[in-house]
Amino acid sequence: MLALFSAFRWYCLKKKPSVPTVDVLSHMLASEMKVIGDAEKAKIFTKFGINGDQLPRMSSEDPAAVALKAVPGNVIRIERDDGTGKYTTYRIVTED
């Protein structure tokens, strides 16, 4: 019995983590997110007078960034609707 337990434990520890099967973007509490293009990114930087270092950061390993297939350097537009209004924020994807 002990050998069976040890073999099972070894299997569980050696097993690689699987790709998440939950779509984090379709959850009812998740905000709408979209990777924006370079033209819109430049437009936002000039509109607000900022550069990429001044945006809030999102890790490239974040489940939402993985679901969007975002790479470091991409800017993600996040639109939230809380009942009193619609709010748009931006985050830059970093390598972390």
Summarize the structure in words.
This protein is of the alpha+beta class. It has one domain: Eukaryotic RPB6 RNA polymerase subunit (Alpha-Beta Complex). It is built from three helices and four strands, in the order αβαβαββ. The chain has helices at 2-14, 38-48, 63-68; strands at residues 32-36, 57-59, 75-81, 86-94. Strands 1-3-4-2 form a four-stranded mixed β-sheet. β3 (75-81) and β4 (86-94) form a beta hairpin. The longest helix is centred in the first third of the chain and has 13 residues, at 2-14. The radius of gyration is 19 Å and the shape is extended. The termini are far apart.
Summarize the structure.
The chain is α+β, with helices and mostly antiparallel strands and 96 residues long.
Strand percentage: 25-35%
pLDDT averaged over residues: 85
Rounded to the nearest angstrom, the radius of gyration is 19 Å
**Number of DSSP E strands:** 4
Order of helices and strands: HEHEHEE
Helix/strand-derived class? alpha+beta
CATH superfamily: RPB5-like RNA polymerase subunit
Helix-strand blueprint:
Blueprint: H1 2-14, E1 32-36, H2 38-48, E2 57-59, H3 63-68, E3 75-81, E4 86-94
Parallel strand pairs: 2-4
Antiparallel strand pairs: 1-3, 3-4
